[in-house]
Specification:
CATH class of one domain: Alpha Beta
Distance between the termini: 43 Å
Largest sheet: 4 strands, antiparallel
Order of helices and strands: HHHHEHEHEHEH
Helix content: 25-40%
Shape: globular
Strand order of the largest sheet: 1-2-4-3
Number of helices: 8
CATH topology of one domain: NADH Oxidase
Length: 199
């Protein structure tokens, strides 16, 4: 009887392999296109002088416009700085423009943002972060590099770029064609065990 059951088990395994039922268990899953893109994207701090095409700037702006915001309030506004004089001016507000041919300023009107009733938490920074992330990933998909700059003088930015009046500038995204590969530190990530917990 034992031999018969073993025989049935062997036949079942052969059948599964023939029908590719257990393929998922036998091969490592491929990364999704999104995970490939997220892995590829890195903080670029060296840019070529080549200008960013208008169509690519518009695609990056569209990616930001489509980003979700709390209660769909859409309190974020983006300025694409491509004028050479304006880009040079920004160097007075931050030393981290890296000579990029396009610089996005991402600002938010906190009065328009959703506010959590229980404790008054304003979603403006979170909304801006989501918009920035969409823009950075779209830029990466277009073969461009970006880096998120948070070190700047906000009062100086408002003075140099008066169009931003009424908005709090949260991030500056220098953008352009990468002039260098990602540093070795780019792939330094904590383990999944330390990053997440499934309950």
């Amino acid at each position: 009887m034992g031999k018969f059951l073993n025989r049935i088990s062997d036949i079942t395994k052969i059948h599964h392999r023939a029908a590719f039922i257990d393929v998922a268990d036998r091969i490592a899953p491929k990364k999704s296109a999104f995970l490939e893109l997220a892995s590829k994207r890195y903080s670029c701090r060296t840019f070529r002088t080549a200008p960013v095409e208008q169509s690519k700037i518009e695609s990056i702006l569209e990616a930001g416009r489509l980003a979700p915001t709390a209660a769909n309030r859409q309190p974020v506004h983006v300025w694409a700085i491509i004028d050479e004089e304006s880009r040079f001016k920004l160097a007075d507000a931050t030393k981290y423009t890296f000579g990029a041919p396009c610089i996005f300023l991402i600002g938010v009107d906190k009065e328009k943002a959703w506010v959590r009733g229980k404790d008054g938490k304003n979603s403006s920074d979170i909304d801006t972060a989501i918009v920035c992330t969409h823009m950075m990933l779209e830029a990466a998909d277009l073969g461009l590099g970006t880096t998120w700059v948070g070190s700047f003088d906000p009062e100086k930015v408002a003075e140099l770029i008066p169009q931003t009046k009424g908005y709090e500038i949260v991030a500056i995204l220098p953008t352009g064609y990468p002039g260098a590969e990602a540093s070795a530190n780019h792939t330094n990530r904590i383990s999944m065990e330390n990053f997440s917990t499934i309950i």
